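Chapter summary example.
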Amino acid sequence: MEKVNLKVEGMSCTNCALTIDKYLKSEGLQNVKVNFIGGDVSFEMNGNITQQKIEKGINSLGYHVHHDHEDHDHHGHDHSGGSLPFKSHLQRFWFCIIFTAPLMLHMLPGVHIHILMNPYVQLALTIPVYIVGMDFFGRSAIKSLLSGIPNMNVLIALGSSAAFGYSLYGLFVNNSSNYLFFETACTTITLVYLGNWMEDASIEKTQAALKSLAKSQKVMANMIAFDDQHHEQIFQVESTALHVGDLVLIRNGEHVPMDSKILWGEANVNEAIITGESVPVEKKIKDQLIGGSILESGTVKAQVTAVGEDTVLSNILKLVKEAQTEKPPVQQMADKISAIFVPTVVSIALLTLAVNYFFVDKSFGDSLLRSIAVLVISCPCAMGLATPAAVAVGLGRAAKNGILFKNARSLEIFKDIKQVVFDKTGTLTTGKFAIENFKSDIIEDDFKRIAYSLEKYSNHPVAKAIVNEWKIKEEIRWASVEEVKGLGIKSKDKEGNEYFAGSYSIAAAFTKDDAHNIYILRNNELIGWIDVADEIRPEAKQVISLLKSKNIKTILLSGDRKDKSQKVGDYLGIDEVVAEQTPEQKLEKIAAYNAIAPTAMVGDGINDAPALAKATVGISLSDASQVAMQSAQVVLMNHGLKHMPMALGLGKHTYLTIKGNLFWAFAYNIVAIPVAAMGFLSPTFGALIMGLSDVVLAINSLSLNYKKVV
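The structure predicted for these 710 residues follows.
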């Protein structure tokens, strides 16, 4: 199966997303995800259908598949099949208001402009507005009806057409004074365009955090090249034109154009856009630079190591976009209601017309106005917008602070977390070890050589510390070497001697002294041990205190020895300490904790992968360069343990924002429709309030950017 990601423009509500979703699934595509706010569409396809055919099908539904070589239109631009030369709802509004304003003057009490009383003048003013309205709303409505999922434009097209048609009928039967609703048709179309523009502008802001990340991908780069005499030449190119292996010069104050490795020079680099950490990081020769970060001081020459979709920033954007297309459980009910909303409202409008005309003794004109008000004030968009808008802001704020959610479901689940399990090494501690002491029963140089040659094959932080400190040139060339999970490294030399480096469990048969980190065995004989020291992260104590203040139980789950783990647990004030656990035992423990209460597991993402996957929510501490390789649902960049309370807080407050949005959306429709049906709201005010309802949701979602969540 091939995964395809598309950028689709012209989606304005959940029904648009449902239309595309339904079409893609009807073509036999798998794992379909559609996000109408960001315009991101992804699916998996086999060889039975071409991408060109899929794109053509999406375009035929009234949307537009955007390609990188095209000029980017913003979210509010029209790709829904309109044939007139308008590029946005705002342009349509300005055109329509020219013709609608005189009719609105005529509606004001005490204003009587004689010429505007003429039905033919009103018709002349209405025709341009109606044509522009039907070019957009009418086309969109017809296409949505043909696709089987009617959208909100069906309601607008029906309402304005009913008013326009009824007025025309009155004109032809010479009874226009009782039938004149041209201004209703005009104001409905004009004010809905205004509302749509306001909605688009508000939704655009929910994507601001992602856009600031994406903007950092396109900067100018100083590319280094050499002429025939091998003289260095520097010329500027767009960062998108760089290739792996290209040389670049990055000066003080400039953006790093693409992921690269320093070949010359030193610099202090601000990686805040990637990690959320504003304190500059010192970088020197052979260190990695992340595209999008900024050199605060210094100048370097670097070689490009990754471009395009392979860069750290692209991986982050991809993860956030994929999370946005995921639907948290709370959205499923709103989607089901949105799918049947339009037919239900049309039925209510027809019922309103019939009841008012036949049973309430209202004229047909008044009854029609009430049914039009029902059509115009109803807002399926509000229900569809409630969840995606909040999720977009929540994920965007998280990404700016170095917190990556791999799916929107994790945001919602965080509200239920009652206990947090921490790994020790590399999570609560820095993972940067130093050799504190060692003892050897053989020649010291031989012992160091054996230890170095064994630990070189391990990814464990303790092993890395030994390798970094004892840099041996003449290492042993093993005939075989393997990592025994949870125990250590086992190897055999060319003479057939067997070696083992690992924890106390491998040496228990040979010594009662269990106070050391690494034991070295040769042919089942203990030949020495190594002690290393690890420092506790300075922010760990504050994080644990904050969690406890929120009545969240804290647990330390470690493979390290009981006394060392207990010492760390006591210092940090952790509620429960479980030590000397193999990866398999960790997995069993996490399953047991999950059975008691929803549990988050925090680990460094290397040895803890199975436990992270098993937890209700797995939280991985990651180097920026490893963001795409974690088994956790949430990644805290740059080993940002201090961001964990914010991750929990953002999850909880995003869910609260979604709940608030859904309450407003449902309450609005439940109250507004009966009020319109009873004649307390004219179609004009209905059109204005309908547009404002979406703006209220967008503003409520945007407040998530400024809320105190910790």
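To summarize the output: The CA atoms of residues 100 and 488 lie 79 Å apart.
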